Amino acid sequence: MQVxxxxxxxxxxxxxxxxxxxxxxxxxxxxxxxxIECVGIYRGYQGLIENDFEELNARSVRNxxxxxxxxxxxxxxxxxxxxxxxxxxYENLINADIDALVVIGxxxxxxxxxxxxxxxxFPVIGIPATIDNDINGTDFTIGYDTALNTxxxxxxxxxxxxxxxxxxFLIEVMGRDAGDIALNSGxxxxxxxxxxxxxxxxxxxxxxxLKKSRKSGKTSSIxxxxxxxxxxxxxxxxxEYIEEHLEDYEIRVSVLGHIQRGGSPSCFDRVLAxxxxxxxxxxxxxxxxxxxxxxxxxxxxxxxxxxAIKNGAKYDKNLRRVADxxxx
Length: 328
Ligand code: F6P
Fold this sequence. Notes:
The chain is of the alpha/beta class. The chain folds into two domains: 7-143 and 265-308, Rossmann fold, CATH 3.40.50; 145-261, Rossmann fold (3-Layer(aba) Sandwich), CATH 3.40.50.460. The chain is 41% helix and 18% strand. It contains eleven helices and eleven strands. The chain has helices at residues 20-33, 44-49, 83-95, 107-120, 144-164, 180-188, 203-215, 235-245, 267-285, 305-308, 317-326, and strands spanning 7-12, 37-41, 53-56, 100-105, 124-128, 167-173, 193-195, 221-226, 250-255, 291-296, 299-304. The strands form two sheets. Strands 3-2-1-4-5-10-11 form a seven-stranded mixed β-sheet, with helices on both faces. Strand 7, helix 7 and strand 8 form a beta-alpha-beta unit. The protein is elongated, with a radius of gyration of 22 Å. The chain starts with 6 loop residues before the first strand and ends with a helix. Residues 15, 106, 130-132, 174-176, 227, 261 line the site of 6-O-phosphono-beta-D-fructofuranose. 6-O-phosphono-beta-D-fructofuranose (F6P) binds next to loops.
């Protein structure tokens, strides 16, 4: 069913991700193509509450596809978690004659959109953008591929110094609840060990495995640790524990931090963002609402927001097996 949408608002929210600008650009140009007006909302839901709006057209988003971050800025809004805050946001949308909202972000962003829609029956569409790749119903989230490549490049550099000094490095990567970055970058960079939130295999096992690889002749090792790993120790405590139980190595720690969130988006992320941005505008025109546009087997799919926000830790056990075998 075609619904007459005349003006769409677009915002970015939550942790920023490389490719968000490409997604904004696709939404704005998708609107221009359909002769729909588009309004950029700065600083996520907080800007929605504060009426921080700017009309956007096809020229407004020139030369941003290659830029990391989000020119609309992002923020985590405590006020939007209140009924009063969401009412203010709703009034601002109505006063600006905005008919529908595209929100680009992660599970926190989608949860807010779902509650907002339930309270105000306002059409919202989500575009999954977070480096964590922890959104249900989509094979990939925007920013994940770029972050992976950033992490692998960093680990490769650390591997040079680790092997020069016969050291063991513990490298912390982002991923509060999902080990996608840790597992895939660990395999990609040939890490000896990988610790992820989805499965705690015990630090005793870790030490035994390091002893085994030492005996097999390894003179340096890399352990990739997801920040949400469930060992019960932070990365510095982990280093201490290993030092106490494994005298063979000098140990160093590297926390990659927010470098993983920056950088020019990869081509994969630019194309993904462009497909999902156009997909979001198409979905709104076709009358869809409270869904996320995701990617599945390279096709754009619509996923109900309540499914998208479910914690579906899609831990790939086969990938763990690949990591274990290729790291011996
Ligand atoms: O959700 C994306 C993410 O980068 C997580 O991987 C990380 O734990 C978190 O955001 C960091 O949040 P902040 O930028 O607010 O410190």
